[in-house]
Task: structure prediction
Amino acid sequence: MVKKHKNHSENRLQSLYDCFPALKIMVEMFSTLDDINLCIKDVEGHYLCVNDAFLRSVPRFRREEVLGKTAFEIYSENLAIGYQHQDQQLLSKGENLNDQLEMITNPDGSLGWYLTNKYLLIDQEKKVHAIIGMSRDLHAVSTKDPRYAKLAVALRKIQTCYNEPLRIQELADETGLSMSQFERLMHSMIQITPRQYLTRQRVEAAALLLRNTDKKVVDIALDCGFSDQASFSKQFKKITGLPPLKYRSMNRIQE
Result:
């Protein structure tokens, strides 16, 4: 069965290469990159191609065991639901996904953060043939990074005061940098914008409260710096792929 899936995926991928010659060059370029996960899926969600970095993110599987499978056969249910919803939104709207901040909850309870881009592979007749996904692993901020000193005040404030109504301009002022300098330096160091980093801290704190406490969603939203439950729920689902209560039920810490 694995061989059958692999052969079908290889044939489907070759047909994409025939229609889009530049695609093969792109796959070769990304094949050995360490920090970017690349995958190509057909419109039904079957994996047709993955690079080495992608395989390292799913160490239980060999390449031939991934090809031809869907996210539900590779990932936990909560992750698969999120990925499926994301792909369906892409296909229904006909728009690419750019710099989407994503949080995943690993089986051991640890949290992983990624910056994801997804592109529809469309021919001249506007037919969608596949979805190309690229995700960059966002590692924790290193205090040893030479750029850290210039951003330390702002980073510490975001990390400790995320529940307050912080303004990005005020954070830039505290570093002594202009807004454009502050945003460029932050992006060069952690690959996301200051606002995305603030959102990351708030969502991560909320995820821990959902898993570890019985607090109401509205209280968690306000405790983590969101203006109301509606804006929190929308942002949380966008980043994790799940509504807060669904996330709680699927990731609850057992006593």
Summary: The chain is about 55% helix and 15% strand. The first strand starts at residue 36 and ends at 42. The chain has two domains: 2-137, 148-190+193-251. The domain at 2-137 is CATH 3.30.450.20 (Beta-Lactamase).
